[in-house]
Automatic annotation (TrEMBL):
It comes from the Bacteria. It comes from Ferrimicrobium acidiphilum. Pfam families: HTH_17. This is Helix-turn-helix domain-containing protein. Residues 72-91 are annotated as: Disordered. Residues 24-71 form the Helix-turn-helix domain.
Amino acid sequence: MTPTTPQTNPVKSVTIEALPAGILLDIDEAATALRISRSRLFQLVSSGQLLSVKLGRRRLFRRADLEAFASSLAPTPPAKGSRVRTSGSMG
């Protein structure tokens, strides 16, 4: 009997830049593009912070709305007393 290796399906990475303009993204694609969980995505929609559209039973996200949401996020300064590591620094 020949040993078999388990078949794994690679996770498909989706970035906003790789998608054509005007495309509607499904929930998984939108969460991946924003690098957040599906749960957090639904929280943002429920709170009105992120816009979405309903098409039949599906909830979809416009690329422009994802970009607008990401652009609206303000960078936060590091916590007082914390050390921020930049690329190239070894600590």
